[in-house]
Amino acid sequence: MKTENSSKGGIQVSAFLVILCCLAVTFTIFFFVFGSAHNFEKNDTANHPLNIMGTIYKGGIIVPIIQGLLLTVVVLSVERFFALTRANGKGNLTKFVQNIRLNLQEGNVERAKELCHEQKGSVANVVESALGKYKEMEANSELSKEQKLLTIQKEIEEATALEMPGLEQNLAVVATMTTLGTLLGLLGTVVGMIRAFAAMATAGAPDSIALSTGISEALINTAFGIGTGALAVISYNYFTSKIDRITYVIDEVGFTIVQSYSTSHK
After folding, report:
1. 118-155 burial, b if ≥16 CB within 10 A, otherwise e?
2. Which residues pair with 250 in a beta bridge?
3. 80 and 50 in contact (C-beta within 8 Å)?
């Protein structure tokens, strides 16, 4: 029996659309907020910046791209937070597993299924599916005990496989941002240093505006690149650990169901 109460959930956003929207937002902010003439001396973007927004604008065109990736990590992290919170269900997972175990020991499968309806979430979905197969095997007189146990185990594995894609959705994109953000930051750093050295190579006195622009571009890109990569690593590891926790609970309760059938049926 496959449960219809799927919790693959969260906001169910497309990572590609999120990236496009985030880039649109960051480019708009970059040109119309950071690039405002009020952030520069003599109201001219060619002059020295007066504040941090002007300094960020001097970082160059790669900056809004990195900012777009940073915003993408934030949006996808929020989406995963709600999705995995929903996957955990309404109650405490440890208590839920304990209650399932107690009801199975008492032979009260129907009450265990009611607990699944109350708990909801990915773990409850898998348990409910397994309990449905549990009841089905109790009514089956054709299969041997070993075949019934294998059937219940297979049901648990199939139900888990259906839930896992929803739990891991968009995490691959977040993992990609750990490298992509850092590489784009490095690219911006190299471009900024090229401009800085080009300004120093001019005959006579170096062009101070061009020199400062190149240095600003290098440092701003470095900062945003490292920030994006660091946030993506933290986010990926955090949500991966939560998924591992859910998977462990599923394995634990699945083992409990199989063992319960094995000990209570001859």
Report:
1. ebbbbbbbbbbbbbbbbeebeeeeeeeeeebbebbbeb
2. none
3. no
Q: Residue 110 and residue 103: Cα distance in Å, rounded? A: 9
Closest to 86 in 3D by CA, of 114, 111, 112, 119:
119
Report whether 97 contacts 52 (CB < 8 A): no
Distance CA 124, CA 264 (A): 22
Exposed (0-12), middle (13-18) or buried (19+): which is 78, by Cβ within 10 Å?
A: middle
Q: Which 3-state string (H, E, C) describes 93-125?
A: HHHHHHHHHHHHHCCCHHHHHHHHHHHCHHHHH
Averaged pLDDT in 10-residue chunks for the chain of 266 residues: 44 78 95 90 81 88 94 95 90 88 88 91 92 89 89 93 90 93 92 80 62 78 94 96 93 90 80
